[in-house]
Amino acid sequence: MASDDRRRLTRMPRQGAIVAVLAIAGLASSFMFTLVVPIQSKLPELLNASREDTAWVVTATLLAAAVSTPIAGRLGDMYGKRRIVLILLGLLIVGSVIAALSPGIGGIIVGRALQGAVTGVVPLGISIMRDVLHEDRVDAAIALMSATLGVGGAVGMPVSAIITETSDWHVLFWMAAGLGAVVFVLVALVVPASVLRTAGRFDFAGAIGLAIGLTGVLLAVSRGNEWGWASPATLSLGLGGLAVLLVWGWFELRIREPLLDLRVAARPAVLLTNLASVAMGFSLFASNVSYPQMLELPASAGGFGLTLVQASFIVMPAGLVMMVLSPFSGRLARTIGPRVLLIMGASALILAYGYSLLWASEVWHLLVANLLIGVGIGFGYAGMPMLIMRSVPQHETGASNGLNALFRSLGTSIAAAVVGAVLAALTVDVGGVAVPTPAAFQLSFALGLGAAGIALGVALFIPQRRDPHEARPSMPR
Question: Per-residue pLDDT tens for 320-339?
Answer without folding.
Answer: 888 888 888 888 888 888 99
